[in-house]
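notes to self, project folder thing:

trying the whole complex as one job this time. last attempt i did each chain seperately and stitching them together was a nightmare. two parts in total, labels are on each line so i dont mix them up again. if this works i'll redo the older ones the same way
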Amino acid sequence: MSTHAGGYSADPRVRPVEWLPWIVALAGFFLLPEYLSLGARILIYVLYALSLDLIVGYAGIITLGHSAYFGLGAYVAGILAAKAGISDPMVQLAAAAAAGAVLGVVTGAIILRTKGLTLLMLTLAITSVLLEIANKASWLTGGADGLSGVVVAPVLGLFKFDLFGKTAYLYCLVALLIGWWFVRKMIYSPFGTSLTGVRENSLRMHAIGAPVYWRLVLVYTLSATIAGVAGGLITQTNQFVGLNVLSFESAGELLVMLILGGVGRIYGAFVGPVVYLIAQDLLAKQFPEYWYLGIGTMLVLVVMFARGGILGILDGLIARLQRKA
Amino acid sequence: MQSVLASVVSVAFHGAALGMILYVISVGLSVTMGLMGFANLAHGVFAMAGGYVLTTAISRFGAPFPLALVVAFVLVGAASIVLERLLYSRLYTASDLEQVLFTIGLIFIAVAVARFIYGTLQQPVVLPDYLKGQFSLLGRDFPTYRVFIIAFSAVMVGLLWFGVERTRWGAMVRAAVDNRAMAQSVGIDTKRLFSLTFALGSGLAGLGGGLGAEIIAIQPTYPFENLVYFLVVVAVGGLGSLRGPFVAALLIGVADTACKYWAPQFGAFPIYVATIAILLWRPAGLFGRHA
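result (full assembly):
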């Protein structure tokens, strides 16, 4: 395992290379003003992928239903904005986070008692329940037509969401920075180390007296909270909520992004969405058939040959160069 | 009163037909998961392939319906052996996450290929004349094709159970499900057994997909849309068991039909809630042995 993985024994100081994503993000803001809406989407998906990495990569919980928390956050923010007339973005975001947290702790406490196929099935079933509710309760959610009329007031009463997406981009960037700081802090803490312990050998963790179940419930709740925030952000930047935020395909897509970047190493969650969403923007509309074919083939190849994703390949290359030098 | 009884009978009948189809498709998944511990989310791909083979054989090559069913079974089963040897077998020892990702990848590929060849439209099923129309039983009319589905699936299920409970192959499969290492050490070639069982399960899925093409529409998104149903059957029924998924499939078939008939405003909501409740009550499924 490389030092990227964090852990209690790893040096918790921020290495210089870890500033790179933020420099790139700021450079993107100034150099590519016409791509800011795509940029905001990428930032949101990085945050969303980061939340998934916490449970899949660090705690080893396999889920196909992470879109439940993302979707709930999106709908809570959307319903507040469109139906309840609460337009303050901070309040919407706080509500989305709270909703994600509540659903996370309730469902986590229930489903984390199981494992394997049963756990997988339960995550799918929970998401399906939410999807059915969103689909059928159209008086509240807009149903299959989606929820439009989302009103978002200026951030802190100062920064208005503009047509070019400047405010949205910086707003998402700040949210991601906070999320990243929090996740990083957690992974380098004893708590983060105990999660890795559960992933690697939960029997031994039981044996040394670690409260395995409660640790898992806690990380699941935190992850659901972050996913809820990401959902709230996507509503605020799109000013629309569609059923697809809750779909199985969207959860699958997120998993693909994370795997593509590299699981269990924080920055895999940065690289994956960037590559995936830019490629999707360039290719998916022209060649929809080839897009899915490409994604599928890539997944199979990653599992067969490159289990560490893009960052894993990079690690391998660097190790090789160092051996030669 | 008469009309209530009529609708109950009708729901039970259509539910049974759907349940039978779900069972024929999913039983292979239960065996794959029980025998090899492989989380094969792409099982629906085999059912979809069976559906496409059947509709193509009939409409393009003019094959008679029974022959088309046989072709769907054989072709899908044979293709699955190739997939199993080339890809699946490399991942038997991989982690659950890797198996899940790999099979999701297969679904994406299958969806793209199906859309590429057949377009996004649903494939029409051309039934022979003798399966059209109504079938009278005890003074009621039932659609002949559904009666055929129930009867045909019942025969298949009977054959399968006989095979597993009474033949040497079945004894070997049961032994390997119970304790793979032990089975191997008494001289059972588990690798070959896995391949054959996988092919049989996939072939059955192909058969089920073809047989049920009129009930579960054959279209490119099939493996995604129906994944939850196949998984529910296996998870609720219990891994590696034959009877569990049978009961689960019938329950789901009838419950789904009943929901659509009496409470369409709830969609599939009650099914999912019931699934969650059952899995919390019995995490290993209704008939699962591993707690």
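what i see at first glance: Chain A touches chain B through 45 residues (CB under 8 Å).
need to look closer tmrw
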